Amino acid sequence: MAYLSERAVEVLNSAQVVVGYKTYIRLIDKLLEGKEVISTGMRAEIDRVNMALENALQGRDTAIVSSGDAGIYGMAGLVLEVCRQKNLRVALQGKALEAGHDILLEIVPGTPALCAAAALLGAPLMHDFVSISLSDLLTPWEVIVERVTCAAKADFVVVLYNPKSKKRDWQLGAVQEILLKYRDKDTPVGIVRKATREGQKVNITTLAQMGTMAVDMQTIVVVGNSTSYVFEDLMVTPRGYLDKYVSF
Length: 248
Fold this sequence. Notes:
This protein is of the alpha/beta class. It has helices at 6-14, 22-27, 45-57, 76-85, 113-121, 141-153, 171-180, 241-245; strands at 17-21, 36-40, 62-65, 90-92, 103-105, 122-123, 129-133, 157-161, 188-193, 201-206, 219-223, 229-231, 234-236.
């Protein structure tokens, strides 16, 4: 909980109802005493949103919990989609809840997993990068392959979310093969599991060895670009300042 923002803590403290995935609820259980807590397992995101909206429409201060940042692979987008589907009028925090608006909504910024992982690795995201989820539950695999291929061709640093699960154990290897077509086998790769949480693990390997590393759904994989390197066990992607402004 050390990386929760002050605003996130304020919102949780003021909420009467807190809704979230059970694993994330457990991470903040000390803040939830005396509140009504609604938790569900995986793949019940729409149910959670509907239950949260039901409580909010009854006038109860309700919070939906996401990991990292709610707007990055989180719940913020789904809340807005469901509100649109239900024809609910939403006023964003900072505006008055005018007549005709149904819900006053605040999206509280958080610390995305890619930022937490990057800080533990060193400075791998100092130049242009892309973020791609390898979960094909909601995105067709053909689309994921096209995105990885384009990112590799363009020499982006590539951040991979959801690299492997019990049922999806081959996708990371397939992505490794794509990247090896455009990247040197010694390209540094950072692998961070449970960033800033209990059980955190941080490793730096190479693109050739990436497939041998233990990863799961709580792991972020950062594949460097053609200029990325390792210095003092830290991964660095230079921005270009020294090449442009300093001569030794």
